[in-house]
Design goal:
This protein is mainly β. The chain has one domain. About 5% of the residues lie in helices and about 35% in strands. Strand 8 and strand 9 form a beta hairpin. The radius of gyration is 21 Å and the shape is elongated.
């Protein structure tokens, strides 16, 4: 079996600006600024490993390698915005803060546009095989959905409280951890589509990069061909 190691190296830094509405359901950002993106390319650049072969000899080997995931995209970045009291013509009676200094809430990425946030549910885990097939993941892949979202988390999106949704924790300072950077996998009406990835905003916490702080980071599934995600933000 070919082993794939999930490494968060595909990154797009996003700045999410909240539109001016009452804070309730998640909303689409005014803009998403992709400030940079990168992918690790230095795999298998070391020297060939040679092992002695002697007649009549049997050797027990451990052959170790690192392979780039083909099933996931990573996002991380900062969250900003303004809270205002506007009328239907976007005239502002009052604006709070000017810019959100310490954002809290959730960044969400969905495989299709979402309007009925009151229908949000945990992903239908009984059909996870079908969802992995939709993404082009194999049942034996080491970096599949069920190998990634191995924990659980309870959270609230809009007015809906969700209990024990499948979740994971992303790396901090290049190391695994279980205290922060939580991400859950959701859908609508207890189905597997659309897929909605929800990442908790952590104001200025250490990211997966040593010495770098960020407001959110998340991974989303990818297919063999390029696809788009619809981004939303819910500020608490």
């Amino acid at each position: 079996m070919k082993t794939k190691v999930l490494i968060l190296v595909l990154t797009a830094i996003l700045t999410l600006a909240a539109v001016s509405v009452v804070l309730a359901d998640p909303i689409g950002p005014n803009s998403v600024d992709v400030r940079s993106t990168s992918k690790r390319t230095d795999f298998n650049t070391g020297s060939n490993q040679q092992v002695a072969a002697e007649k009549g000899n049997i050797s027990n080997l451990y052959v170790n390698t690192t392979a780039q995931t083909t099933h996931w995209q990573g996002y991380y970045g900062d969250v900003g915005g303004t809270i205002t009291l506007d009328n239907a013509n976007n005239w502002t009676m009052y604006s709070w803060v000017g810019d959100i200094v310490s954002p809290t809430g959730t960044v969400l990425a969905a495989t299709s546009a979402v309007t009925a946030w009151d229908s949000i549910t945990c992903i239908n885990w009984t059909n996870i095989t079908g969802l992995e097939t939709w993404y082009g993941m194999g049942n034996s892949d080491s970096d599949g959905i069920d190998e990634t979202f191995t924990g659980t988390k309870s959270l609230t999106i809009g007015s809906v409280s969700l209990t024990n949704c499948n979740a994971t924790n992303l790396y901090m300072n290049d190391s695994s951890q279980t205290q922060t950077w939580n991400e859950t996998i959701l859908s609508l009406n207890n189905k597997t589509q659309p897929v909605i990835f929800a990442s908790t905003i952590e104001d200025g916490k250490d990211s997966f990069i040593n010495g770098t702080k960020t407001d959110f980071q998340m991974v989303v599934g990818t297919k063999s061909t390029n696809m788009n995600y619809y981004f939303y933000i819910e500020l608490n």
